[in-house]
Design a protein that fits this description.
Shape: globular
Order of helices and strands: EEEEHEHHEEEEEHEHHH
CATH superfamily: Ribonuclease Z/Hydroxyacylglutathione hydrolase-like
CATH class: Alpha Beta
Number of helices: 7
Radius of gyration: 19 Å
Largest sheet: 6 strands, mixed
Strand content: 15-25%
CATH architecture: 4-Layer Sandwich
Structural class: alpha/beta
Strand order of the largest sheet: 1-2-3-4-5-6
Length: 272
């Protein structure tokens, strides 16, 4: 793969060609939880007429117009997980393209079956391997873009910072296992680059996985220490562990701490 462009340096709604296979259009929905906005990925084998669209995002006519201009004939629309900044346009996309929608959760499928673990979605020479990665949400899924040695990560790994594991749908144990699975793809050389749903492309996949794992384990140790120091509620833990974080993010941090506390409770029960 050639040098990776900084997709966040371009204006929103301007298509950025990342490789011969992948183009991204960033939606105009920047925010605390969406970073620069939701990245909608359009994938197409060189010379092919049909494309695959991943995470069309908000039900915003301007955004969808740009996405569909790039996509042309859409064979299928895939979703990495159920959060609204990824799925809000699901029925509009079905209406505008006639293409089926597929995700791990049947609730986010239209005229098609849920994605299977290890399934290869093939469209005119484009091959995408389905890699379930629960943790951020129970249905979180990555897609291995074989032609690019790239993993499209949804919100499991972000282009900047770290993702939230929000209780009760998010769970830390499965998330750590998902990082291990992603790490195996990276170690084997099958995924050298990450295409995230928010933030810039990450060309150093190995370093990112190591960072994510170290960050999660460090936070978990901090939560253990806060509990040992007398913190009982998630809010009390947040006040100690996330004191340096902007308070506007504390509600999200509380949900993440709930997931960590549940993980610690599971650890203790396993030890009994």
């Amino acid at each position: 793969m050639s040098a990776v462009p900084d997709i966040t340096a371009r204006p929103v709604e301007v298509p950025v060609r990342v490789s011969d296979v992948a183009t991204v259009v960033r939606a105009d929905n920047a925010g605390i939880m969406t970073l620069d906005g939701t990245n909608t990925w359009i994938l197409r084998a060189p010379g092919a007429s049909r494309s695959v669209v991943v995470d069309p995002g908000p039900d915003d006519p301007r955004h969808l117009d740009v996405v569909l201009e790039v996509a042309g004939e859409v064979a299928v629309v895939l979703y990495t997980h159920w959060h609204g900044d990824h799925t809000d346009a699901i029925d509009t996309m079905v209406s505008r393209t006639g293409a089926p929608a597929r995700a791990r959760d049947a609730a986010w499928c239209r005229a098609a079956d849920p994605l299977g673990d290890g399934e290869v979605v093939e469209v005119d020479g484009l091959r995408l391997e389905v890699v379930p990665t629960p943790g951020h949400t129970a249905d979180s899924t990555c897609l291995l873009v074989e032609a690019d040695d790239a993993l499209l990560t949804g919100d499991t790994i972000l282009g900047r910072g770290t993702t939230i594991i929000a209780h009760p749908d998010g769970a830390l144990g499965p998330y750590l296992s998902s990082l291990d699975r992603i790490g195996d793809l990276v170690s084997s050389g099958r995924a050298t680059t990450f295409y995230p749903a928010h933030g810039p492309v990450l060309p150093d996949a190995h370093g990112v996985v190591d960072f994510y794992r170290a960050h999660r384990l460090e936070r978990l140790d901090q939560v253990r220490a806060a509990v040992a120091g007398g913190a009982v509620t998630a809010r009390e833990v947040v006040e100690r562990v996330y004191a340096e974080v902007d308070e506007s993010l504390w509600p999200a941090a509380e949900r993440s701490v709930e997931a960590q506390l549940e993980h610690l409770r599971t650890e203790r029960s396993d030890e009994v």
